[in-house]
Amino acid sequence: MAKMFSCDFECTTSVTSDKETRVWAWCAMEIDGKFDNYIIGKDIESFMSWVEKERPEAYFHNLRYDATFILSHLGQNGFTFSKESEDNTYNAFVNSSQVMYSLDITFKSRGKNTRKTARFRGSEKKLPMSVKAIAEAFNLGYSKGEIDYHKERPVGYEMDENEKDYIIRDVRIVAEAIYQQVVVNGLDRMTIGGDALNSFKDSLLERNDCYYIKARGINKKTGNVKSGTNEKAFRKFFPLLDIEKVDKRIRKAYKGGYTYVNKIYEGETIPTGRVYDVNSLYSFVMHDRMLPWGVPMEFKGEYKKDENYPLWIGEVSFAFKLNEGYLPIIQAKGKNRFADNVYLESSDDEVITMTVTSVDWELYKKHYHIYDDTYHGGFKFKSRNDLFKTYIDTWVNRKRQAKSDKNWSLYTICKYMLNALYGKFSTNPENKNKIPEVVYGVVTYKDDDTEIGKPVYTALGVFVTAYAREITINACQSVGNLFIYSDTDSLHVLGDEEPQALKGRVHKDELGFWDHEATFVRGKYLRQKTYAYEIPGKWIECYEDGNLFSKLVECPIEEHTHGILKIVCAGMTENIKKHITFDKFNYSFEWRGDAKKGIAGKVQPLNIKGGQILVDVPFRIQRPVYVNKKSLMIDWSKVG
Fold this sequence. Notes:
The protein is of the alpha+beta class and 640 residues long. Among the domains are: 4-190, Ribonuclease H-like superfamily/Ribonuclease H (Nucleotidyltransferase, domain 5); 193-237, no CATH class. 26% of the residues lie in helices and 29% in strands. It has 15 helices and 30 strands. An 8-stranded mixed sheet has the order 3-2-1-4-8-7-6-5. Strands 9-20-21-11-22 form a 5-stranded antiparallel sheet, with helices on one face. The protein is globular and about 70 Å long. It starts with a strand and ends in a 20-residue tail after the last strand.
């Protein structure tokens, strides 16, 4: 069995050269619970020599980046792409967006019963956060270090002690987290979503109605459950459906969360407000709502009420106009006349065709006047709300106990296990993957043949997201003119008082309740996923290592003297956020970094000979696509 390692590269940047790059430092640490077995090197050649000798199963925390250096080296040393595990070949799982999940390298055999293949995985698929955030979330007792990434480091450069400490910290942070996931908790799938789905399948084996499936799946010699037994239990409730005839039609109803800025407040400076988040929204829906299961029945025309098949997904053509006092909630994605991310107030008498769930359709009829509607049939489903309770309750209870025990590693893992499950149900079975090729040392990608896998059970993901939108939209609608903004599971409202509509529904930890996450003293919402607010803060004096210094800390609003700026802005890096103030946070804000001058900004990857560099690109906050909104003069005393 291969040893597991956590690996990291440090490489030259665009400041050194924008034509060629190389590894100047690497480290590999064994994931064994001791974290004292590690090796350090200073070039890709020594790393690949170690790989060929060790043939490990190793994790990089940005595999797409690090793998370009490995692939460039392989391509320049006679290795070629192959899916057959032939000697001196590599194989990679890269999706259509060039996101790499795994990289396998097959070397020549060293003899009978010896491992031929080294495998690399992306730990970011198991731990979807930065290395810095992992150290904080798992409360490791140490943090990620700092170095000058752009320092000139010639071939053969010898690391100083700070640089050695930096790279050792990086690999150890990931090693400790992966150890907790894979070794301690047995979560050994390629992604956290895969871990969640496998754990859910296991939970079904404990049901009384799966007793015989489990009994027939026990190995009589070992007493263990045979591999694949949990899949049989899963397919009892979530059968395989035909991709062309059923799955593709159902998938058209799959939509994301409700993300909307109230036009009354868009672009305005807003006085005091509150931010609420639903505690584990998707987990709550899976725990409590009636969800589809089994083989659906196809129906023609309009759905007719059927107590045995109460849920439906169907294709509908209709025109619509927003009812007075209601929020817009329809997006006409893929329709040439309408921007994909805009919630429409009217179809302007044009009939559009959409695939919707029964949950969405009831919301549409509540918020809009629907007319000229025609129904084109669809699928109806049986429903039940007991299939996910054991799984959700198990991980919620483990999370609560971990918090009580201050076991932050387990606490973080539980959060991911609760949040990652629903999305796996809607995994697209059509994989339009990419094949990495190396041309003159530069890694490129070409289209692979489309591979058709097995759908999980798309309707489940479709209804979970539909119910989640219903919960969020109803909450936004219920607070009236206090509503400022929503993003999937969050609600931002005007004022520093709990809205009457949320009374009895606010709790810090209770599943499905609204958690009061923050109070702000002023805010600004420019567009979807682009907003900033200041929470109340004050300066305090602190001592550290015998030195007195001032620190800005969060405080109750009545003690507020200085705001602490919080920014959410799609595409804006943490480096850019350091240079922006509340007053500068406006439409057309622009920033361009310059690595050569030491000015950090937004970057994008560029593959060059040897591997990959990050090049500076401009960042700008754009106005929303609908620019016909009239500027509103708001009398705040009358709002709400």
